[in-house]
Structure formats: structure tokens, C-alpha cells
Amino acid sequence: MPAAPGISLPAPGKYASPDLPVNSRYPVNTTPNSARPSLSTVEVSIPGHPYPVVIGPGARRRFVSYLAPFHLNRTVWITDRNVAGLWGDEIRSLSGTAAPDLVVLPAGEEQKRLATVEDLCRRFVQLGVERHDTLVACGGGVIGDVVGFAAACYLRGVNFVQLPTTLLAMVDSSVGGKTGVDLPEGKNLVGAFHQPRFVLADPDFLATLPERELRSGLAEVIKTALISGPKLFTELRSFVKRHPDLQGPDLAGLIESCVDFKAGVVEKDEREGGLRRILNFGHTVGHALECLGQYRTLKHGEAVLWGLSAALDLSVRRAGLDPRLETDIQAFLAPFLTAIPPLEFDSGEVLDLLARDKKVRRKVVQFVLLRGVGLPVVTPLADPQILIAALDHLRDRMRAGAAPEGEDREIRD
Ligand SMILES: NC(=O)c1ccc[n+]([C@@H]2O[C@H](COP(=O)([O-])OP(=O)(O)OC[C@H]3O[C@@H](n4cnc5c(N)ncnc54)[C@H](O)[C@@H]3O)[C@@H](O)[C@H]2O)c1
Ligand SMILES: [Zn+2]
């Protein structure tokens, strides 16, 4: 059978060692296990599918020991070309075998589609993957979402574990069991809930992550902080002030806070019947912008950052958010927004896309808005005029380069 298009199985030893920058802003932890500070673990107590998220430098090295208690059979690793190029040898070492089954996908959001799932499943058949085998998603949110969805479908469900390698995947997508792919008509329109058996979130991987991707991941941290409350928002602002390059040993603490908050939400509402909807803060407009840019112009987190900005504007108009607080939060967002490539859009086009959003109920878009930091409310917005006004305002701010009038672009504390 010919190889499924776009998917390759590398020969052992094909990839070089991780090409870590010599002056890496985030030192890769080479300390032996025994001498390392302890890792933290957040338990995600979903009824019937509880699992640990292990967080901290070196967490990846716990792979074999976390696998053992589950008596999971064989593992098949799936990653993308960028991660394989940088971390291929590490993957081989972590897997505990010299020649792991490793499937390498091209990188990028364009891979998050049904065709990739078919290709992957065909590859699993060729590899003889059985029901009790385990898929290992080692990569960013795209790999996690696609592999998780393939794991939910292949043989009607196989085990999978997550080794997130981007900030976004560590703080958000690897936890909670949402898996899926995009359609040309919209984002994440086909998917399944399928929980991983465990997650190892190791910030050492971030040493090789481009700064643009780090900033994109920070969008989900900002989202989480705004819906969770002043404690995390203060922790975030202080982190950004101390580490404008978003790297630092205390990043692990920030990741833990985000995972902890998300775990608390998904434990109460695994299938997004109610509470879990708050995690979509910034994502309604965000997904529409991401789709308008054909998943290429804007990265997911970048679209979410603009979506957060629009949701804050709507929160003042419709949820009673104090305008002074909004100005303050927009000023915090501004330096991140200015770094994002501009996207020209027509507000009517965005409205059309919003109508296809999964959060639409009886043709009315359900927005997550904020009454204050840590006070999210799900609000139906039936009046297109309010949406048009907020979208026009957003477009003007994008054109003007993001910073609110009269605000400096420094990050303020
Ligand atoms: N399932 C969920 O709950 C959930 C939540 C949030 C976001 N998401 C999804 O996550 C996706 C975005 O995830 P992402 O931002 O991680 O994108 P991504 O997976 O495309 O990764 C971003 C880029 O970084 C590269 N990369 C990954 N790890 C690297 C490393 N350690 N060093 C160098 N390069 C590395 C990748 O090859 C890719 O080019 C979107 O599709 C979004 O919808 C899902
Ligand atoms: Zn997101």
C-alpha cells in the first residue's frame, strides 16, 4: 500500500539533536532527575476518566514511568516536522526504544482537517496499531487536536497521551479532552470529546519555540486569567513585567495556574453543557478572524487576542464592565496586539461567520462577556447593530496599530 500523502515515517537517527540556541532564554534542564525540584501535578477529576497533568522542567522524562501503571501496550508517536527536526532524538530517547513508531505530519493549522485524520488512521493500520495501543501526541495544539480526534475514532477509540510542546498546548489544548478538526466553513466543526490518559507539560520544550508562537500561546493565558480572577491576572501581569520575552523559570507556575483553573471547569462540565462555555471567552470573534485569514494570516492565539479585545469592548456595551477597567486591560493587551500582522475584514463577513459558530443557539450568537475580572457571563447578542459597532471599532483599532488612543504602548502594572 502506498504511503498516505503528507505523512512520513522517518528512519531512526534521521533527525539531528534538538537545535537549542546556545544562549537559550529558557535554560533547558539537564539536571539529573534525582536533583530536580519536584514537579507539580494537577489532577483532572473527570468522572470515569481522571488523569494527571504533570508540569515542570523535566516532566517529559517521566513518560515511561507514567505509562507503566496503565499497562498500556505499544506506543505510536505522532509529531510534526518542526518538532521532529528539533526534538526527534529526544522523542527516541523518551520512548524508551531506539526505534519508536514515529509518524511525522507537516506542520500548521492546514493539517487540522479530516483528510489528515484519514491519512493517520490508514498509517495506523499499516503499522498494525491495535485497540490497546497508545497514541502519543507530541507537539502543539494542532497535533494534540488531530491525534486526539484520530484516537477517538480509530477502532472506535484508542488511548492517547499528550506531550505538549507549545505554550498554548501546555496551558490549554492538551487538557480537557476537546479534539477535532476544521472544515473550510469554520473552525473545529468536527470533533469529539476524548480525554488523554495523562499529560506531561514540560516547559523545556519552549526553548526552541519561536517568540511569535510564545505570544500566541500567551493569549490563552490572558483569556484564562481574565475569566478566572484577579489573582491569576496579577500573577500574569507581574510575570510579563519581569519577563517581557515571556521566558523564565516561573513560567511553570503560570502554566500550573492555568491548568488548575481549566481542570476545575472541565471537571464540572466535561461536555460544555454550561460552565465550560466560559473557556470560549474571546473565541467567538477570534475563530471568525482566524477563518477569514484562512488559518494562515493569524495564528490561533493571535486571533484570540483580537477576539479578547472585541469581547472586552462588547462587555462594556452589554455586560456592565467598568470602562476604566476595560481601558486598563486593553492597554495591557496593546503591546501584544501591535505585534500581530494586520487583517483586513468586513464586519458583515464576520457576522456571517459568527452565524455558523458552534456557540449559536436558535440563530442567536452566545458571547462570553465579562462583568469584571473573574466574572464571565454568557450573553446572547441578538442585535446585529451592537456587533457591527464593536467589529467596526475593532477593525479601526487594527488599522491604527492596536493601541487605544492616548495610551502608551508600554506594559503597565
Ligand atoms: N482542544 C482544545 O481545547 C484547544 C484549546 C485551544 C486551542 N486549540 C487549538 O490549538 C491549535 C493551536 O495550537 P498551537 O498554537 O500549539 O499551534 P501548532 O500546533 O500549529 O504549533 C505552532 C507552531 O509551533 C511549532 N512548534 C511546536 N512545538 C515547538 C517547539 N517546541 N519548538 C519549535 N517549534 C515548535 C509547530 O510546528 C507549529 O509550526 C489551534 O488549532 C486551536 O484551535 C485547541
Ligand atoms: Zn483557543
Describe the structure.
- There is one protein chain.
- The protein is α/β, with parallel strands linked by helices and 413 residues long.
- The protein folds into 2 domains: 33-208, Rossmann fold (3-Layer(aba) Sandwich); 220-400, Dehydroquinate synthase-like, alpha domain (Up-down Bundle).
- Helix content is 42%, strand content 16%.
- It has 13 helices and 12 strands.
- The strands form 4 sheets. A 4-stranded parallel β-sheet has the order 4-3-5-6, with helices on both faces.
- Helix 12 (347-355) packs across helix 13 (384-400).
- It is globular.
- It binds nicotinamide-adenine-dinucleotide (NAD) and zinc ion.
- Nicotinamide-adenine-dinucleotide (NAD) is lined by residues 80, 82-83, 86, 107-109, 112, 139-143, 145, 165-166, 168-169, 172-173, 176, 178, 188, 205, 208-209, 213, 216, 220, 299-301.
The CATH fourth-level homologous superfamily of the largest domain: Dehydroquinate synthase-like - alpha domain
* Main β sheet profile: 4 strands, parallel
The whole-number mean of residue pLDDT values reads 87
Low-confidence segments, given as residue ranges, are 1-6, 8-36, 403-413
Strand order of the largest sheet: 4-3-5-6
Order of helices and strands: EEHEHEHEHEHEEEHHHHHHHEEEH
The small-molecule ligands in this entry are:
nicotinamide-adenine-dinucleotide, zinc ion
Provide the domain count.
2
Derived structural class: alpha/beta
CATH topology of the largest domain: Dehydroquinate synthase-like, alpha domain
The first-level CATH class of the largest domain is given as: Mainly Alpha
Q: How far from one another are the termini?
A: 59 Å
Taken from the alpha-carbon principal axes, the silhouette is: globular
Helix proportion: 40-55%
